[in-house]
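Question: does this match?
>
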Amino acid sequence: MSPAQTTEFKIATESWEFDQIHELNYQTFVEEIPQHPSESSKRLVDQFHRDNTYIVSVRGRRVLGMISVTDERPFSLDQKLKDLDSYLPPARSICEIRLLSVQASRRGGRVLKGLLKTLADYCLEREYDLAIISGSEREQKLYGHLGFVPFGPLVGTPAAMYQPMYLTLETFATETKVVLTGSGSATQEQSCTNLLPGPVNIADKVHDAFVAPPLSHRSNEFVDDLVLTKRRLCRLVGARSVEIFTGSGTLANDVIAGQLSLLSGRGLVLSNGEFGQRLVKHAEAFGLEFETHEVDWGATFVEDEIENELDRIPHLDWTWAVHCETSSGVLNDMGSMAKMCSRRSIRLCMDCISSIGTVRVDLSGIYLASGVSGKGLGAYPGLSMVYYSHAVKPAPENIPRCLDLGYYALENGVPFTISSNLLYAVRAALEKFGSADAFDSTDRLARWMRTRLGDAGFEIVGPDGQSSPGVITLALPSSLDSRVLGQRLEEEGFRLGYNSSYLVDRNWIQIALMGDVSRESLERLCSRLPKHLSTFDASV
């Protein structure tokens, strides 16, 4: 596979760039928007070409998108509106922005945002404090979102009407910049569909709960709400007790390893992927005595083989496994493991980080289990949970207090600062699980999508019926570099999992259905992916 190429945003300077600018100009403003008559050359040289500065998005020697800017009068709008300046704020350094065009296969994602950010930097450097455009009628929502203000009558022809608009430096500083830098609310990134296994798409009500003024973790109101939230978390998975920690799932699994270090017997760690291997590292870090049973990534455990391991290892006290192996999407049979361990009075611990909130989970017979806020629950990352089914007490001094499950229980769940913002986001996210359809809708989407992608020729990791609906993993042929495909899909408006080293090593790419995902967005993705499979050229 060739190394992944990057997308560059720059001022056009090369002759081949200008050749493709004229071709893209023709495709957009002749073939797509009937603004100019057709030409056999399939090229359209803009009438203001000599005065234009073009910002382009380039990958290799291919122009993916463009936008032009000029401060030379007369502007294009000078020709369309008499006394243009009478419509505009006075005493301004004005530039005109035109010819926004992105290859059809690259719209809705990084290319558009990158062009606009690069253009903004260019205009700020030249101290423009007013930008004017002729905004296409069909893109008024986009321009309004960016802060542009309409003025004057519509211009153009009946087949291609445009609304004159302007943007002041003041509005750019307070509104537009927030959109382009991605530092605004949860709704400001909707142009790119988030299909990552975390962080996930955040529902508006969860975002609203998160941005409320923070409360002291020592206030009675906070403590009462913490107790209520813990009850809801337990009810969701049938657990007896849970403690909430500030940190990631890695911290929660360290908490579990710390509790296992208090036991005298030996252990067994089951591994069929990256996160099973990480459990091995957790156990090693705490000096636990254990053995490992490993199978291939993407494979499921064979019940008879686990039975043999449980019977073979002397003084076996605990078993630790991953429920949803995020690296492949395989959903291990926790119910079967629980029965096997129960018959032998072996404590079973489970990593449920990618399964809680995604599938129905029953922790009633589980000794310890880990979960997080930022995956299937649909809240912000930053909190982790450890569920338990037995009485706990503070540990000896060899376990740090921040990892001591018993100390948290002794302090009623608030030994240290916990973010009220993160807690209330979790509480808001839990409301969706009151519906009987909370899990079935994701399962239906996943079954439909696996069928669509399988019929399109993609190899899907993990067997049907034994894979999580929350993670669909595609094993790509050697002709498709997962990093290049992932970046191109991001430019087309789909953010998938492809950057993790364990995915890069296997040339895998992942589609996660853990957040708020619409059938419409998945339809669009399913229409794009087969085209890459049949026409992708990694050398481009």
